[in-house]
Amino acid sequence: MVLHRPVPARLPVPAGLGRLAVLTTVFVCAACGLVYELELVALASYLLGDSVTQASVVLSVMVFAMGIGSLLAKRLRARPALGFAVVEAVLALTGGLSAMALYACFAWYGQARLAMVGFSLMIGVLIGAEVPLLMTLIQRIRRQDAGCAVADLFAADYVGALVGGLAFPFLLLPVLGQLTGALVTGAVNAVAGGALVLWLFRRDLSTRARWALLTANGLVLVVLAAGSVLTGPFERAARQAVYGTDVRVAVRSGVQEVVLAGGDGDGRPLSLFLDGRLKVSGDDEPRYHEALVHPAMAGAHRRVLVLGGGDGLAVREVLRYADVRSVTVVELDPEVLRLARTDPGLAALNRRAYRDPRVRVVTADAFDWLREGRPAVGPYDVVISDLPDPGLTPSTKLYSQEFYGLVTRVLAPGGRIAVHGGDLDARPHVFWTVDATLRSVGLRTAPYRAAVPQGRGAPERDWGFLLAARAPVRLALAEARPPLPSLTPETLRAEGRAAERRKEVGALPSTLMHPRYAG
Predict the structure, then answer these.
(1) Any idea which positions bind S-methyl-5'-thioadenosine (predicted)?
(2) Which of 129, 196, 451, 469 is deepest in the core (most CB within 10 A)?
């Protein structure tokens, strides 16, 4: 049996320094590779929702592709320096442009899933090819026991992954954003890979190969630099493709992307998007917020707690009752609160609710706030849960058995809870899981809906709501209520009967350890 032994490299520096250069390159490339992975997971979760599913798809496809890349690297071992340089140049270009390409597919074609899988596969193959080639290069510098060489490479690789994993959420994402962060990472990757080969292993390359690599890496850096310069115009064009041409405000908070369109006094209704999903439409939001708030106000309502609802629209409906003494709003995103106070369109829509002295605002995660026992003016007669859709993974804990258990602790005797349970028509299982979860903490529930025709032959939106209390619940409206154009006692009872007819038997409660809202 003949063992292949790498030909010793002719280095311009001592072997110890050359070995350090290779391990440093491993560190940098590992950091860049993990940033590409995290960037794909984060952007796919933002564009497609359900972060658990997107992370599972990206990581599983990428790990599978890394195995393929390791096998394909066998064909490059005859010329490992050249092979490694080519792999890094292609990886830098692919990884650097992946975020921009993924966002473009979503904005102009409405479909990003295939692009996500494609980039995960390509990046995984290229990352998988790195280690076998680096193993060959480090053995050419100084032959050593294979186990020791693997240990050194993996140590540098894992430390680099740690740095990349921490740099993405704490540095690249908040400072540079998704697109520029990926482009800068690609540039670092290209420089690290090209510099190692063109400096340390340049004697392994012909003059023609050296110039070809230098030109290729230069072109990669030019393309990435051009992408960085064009990030602003690209984002504006993509945003208009997604939200329309009347986008007025687009900000990225520490929680989500917040976009306001229309509502600037020219007759176009205001629309509020959170992470690309329509949260508020000025055309039909009164129907939604009247249905969410007013059934819960049929009884004592001096102290009201609004969970979520930072746009101020649920608060607007609560404040229409003169005998309300205090309203506590617990909202996670300070940017939504700022816009609700200062944006002319949104402030006009919520009737400047946050100027009312009865309103107290808390910027916090609703689950943590309740768990820490922060309520200062409770117990509350009414709790309004105006939170993101339960089908979104980050919101799952806010529709869990544990969460509703915390809510009941701040509920006054005879108090009522109103919950938005999702689209009753499109996702009935999610809605009835919310119902089962409320019942699991000892609450009685009354389901009802609010259907809004969309026009032009489109199906109507079918919001589902649940009114819950410790005692049996009757759907009704307060006798001394403000004018409600879209909601009467008769329509409320009819919407309750319509919801009951769709009841799904056998739904199980959702818990933190066993979430049941996926799918």
Answers:
(1) 256, 331, 365-366, 394
(2) 129
Whether 282-500 and 15-233 are alike in CATH topology: the answer is no
Helix, coil or strand: residue 203: helix
* 157 assigned to active site: no
Judge if the upstream peptide bond of residue 483 is cis by omega within 30 degrees of 0.
no
C-alpha closest to that of 66 among 33, 96, 94, 98: 33
Which of 324, 420, 422, 447 lies closest to 381 in space, CA to CA? 324
Annotated binding-site members: 256, 289, 311, 331, 365-366, 394
**pLDDT (tens digit, 9 = 90+) per residue, 414-444?**
999 999 998 888 889 999 999 999 999 999 9
Reduce the DSSP state of residue 293 to 3 states and report it. Answer: helix
Is the peptide bond between 379 and the residue preceding it cis, with omega within 30 degrees of 0?
A: yes
Task: Scan for tokens 């050296």, then name that residue.
Answer: 210
* Token pair in block for residue 57: 């798809």
Residue 158 predicted with pLDDT over 90: yes
Please give the Cα distance from 205 to 196 (Å, whole number). Answer: 12
- Annotated catalytic residue: which of 275, 284, 386, 462? 386
Which fold would CATH assign to domain 282-500? Answer: Rossmann fold (3.40.50)
Question: Could you tell me the pTM of the whole model?
Answer: 0.82
